[in-house]
Amino acid sequence: MAKYVGAIDSGTTSTRFMLFDRAGSVVAYDQQEHRQIFPRSGWVEHDPAQIWQRTQQVIRATLDKAGVTAADLVAVGVTNQRETAILWDRRTGEPVHNAIVLQDTRTDRICQAMEAVGHAAAVYRKAGLPLATYFSGPKIRWMLDNVDGLQARAAAGELLFGTVDSWLIWHLTGGRHVTDPTNASRTMLMDLETLAWDDELLDIVGVPRAL
Fold it and tell me: What is the pLDDT of residue 13?
């Protein structure tokens, strides 16, 4: 009978996997850093493929240290850098751009433009968030505006968006595209009352629902 719980902690500088027994004690863990990419001042990126690679590596290393296999796990939880945005190909699973990390500030003009036309109140009322570069929605908008072909591919349903939890779960499960309200609430795209993606917010930020 499966008797361990695993925890993936995918943070801004490293990924860690921890194995817990039924008493809640740590049985084993492993941790690896991933590369920090700074294309220009104020821009921060990660390689999504490397994050997935590191996740596999720390899981394998932890299981090996404990002398157990995946069959011994009853569940795996994921915690992550919540606002970091990733877009990937729905068919191949390949990222179409580096992840734009939570502290990246390249979307300042996008946020200023939304504020200038009076969207701040609606975003705060529905999403509970200020118009700030921290959140995922404007990062998606930046990628669609600045990477050739992504807008058309997104509208056609060829791409998927996710925060890091979605990216890892998609790969771990062979293609399940899911998240939870705690991550979705940091995208600027979810209505806090309905806990659903909101058409008005999607329109304000300019994110196709197909993503």
Answer: 95
pLDDT of residue 127: 97
DSSP category for residue 85: B
- Looking up tokens 């992550």 gives 80
Q: Where are the domains of the chain?
A: 4-205
Q: What is the pLDDT of residues 146-179, one digit of tens each?
A: 999 999 999 999 999 999 999 999 999 999 999 9
Half-sphere exposure (Cβ direction) of 160: Cα atoms closer than 13 Å: 23
Sheet holding 14-20, edge to edge: 26-33, 14-20, 4-10, 73-80
In sequence order, what are the residues at sequence separation of 6 or more whose Cβ sits closer than 8 angstroms to the Cβ of residue 58? 8, 15, 16, 17, 29, 30, 31, 32
Q: What is the mean pLDDT of residues 107-129?
A: 97
Label the pairing between strands 4-10 and 73-80. Answer: parallel
pTM of the model: 0.94
What is the 8-class DSSP label of residue 98?
P
Task: Give the integer Cα–Cα distance in Å for 17 and 9.
Answer: 6
Spatial separation of the C-alpha atoms in residues 176 and 162, rounded to whole Å:
11
The CATH fold assigned to 4-205 is Nucleotidyltransferase; domain 5 (3.30.420)
CA pair distance 85, 187, nearest whole angstrom: 9
Position 1 confidence tier, pLDDT thresholds 50, 70, 90: low
Angle at which helices 108-116 and 120-127 pack, to 10 degrees? 100
